[in-house]
Amino acid sequence: MSWTFGIVTFGTSPLLAEAIATIREHGPEGSEVLVVGGDQHPEDADVWVNFDESIKEGWLTRKKNMIAEWANCDNLCVMHDYVGLEPGWASGVESFGNDWLTCMHRVLNNDGSRYRDWCVINNDAWMNPPIDDQKPPFAYPGRLLKYHRTEYGRWQYYSGTYFCVKREVMLETPLDEERVQNQGEDVQWSRFLYQKYGDRAFTMNPSAAVRLLKYKPPVPWQHLEPL
Q1: Quick one: pLDDT at residue 40?
Q2: Taking all residues of the chain, what is their mean pLDDT, rounded to a whole number?
Q3: Is the whole-model pTM more than 0.70?
Q4: Gap between the Cα atoms of 165 and 6, Å rounded
Q5: Which of 4, 54, 131, 160 has CB 3.0 to 4.6 Å from 32, enough for a Cys bridge?
């Protein structure tokens, strides 16, 4: 099972080197580290893709699509430069197997609390028209799910902070490059996945985990009991 770890960066994060170090320590042996963004080739990265940040501010959709275009492996782990692999990541992934289209792992905040990983959100991120006329079966804007729950595919959403995806899936169903950071691009992409693949688009593997290398304040609904 070969892996490309695709890291998106603006090149100013002091955590990038630490993120790469966790991949070398806890990722599968021989994994490819591909960095998109920044102004120089990061130390210990296998591939660096230069990116002109002046073209469009916050153009993360393009950067993430470029990971699939440049990757040499079938399994992609797409992550921001402040995400690090936890011990046991490689064994947790290997034991789970390779039968998935996209896959989420446990995501921990820097303090060890649960961050947005296996979750749902009650809107289609300004898609016009929305993908259907269903009404969300939960009251709050979003909710974390218990890791065994799989019946919310229509409302499933992957945070853009971290996710795993087959390279072929990413090439066939790319992010919308008309959108930039904080325009609901991750919710929209999740809806694209559901439209194309249905419930089988989303898979959870709680045996592997990552941790944010800096603390990020949770949104209010993250404090609610998971569904």
Answers
A1: 86
A2: 96
A3: yes
A4: 11
A5: 4
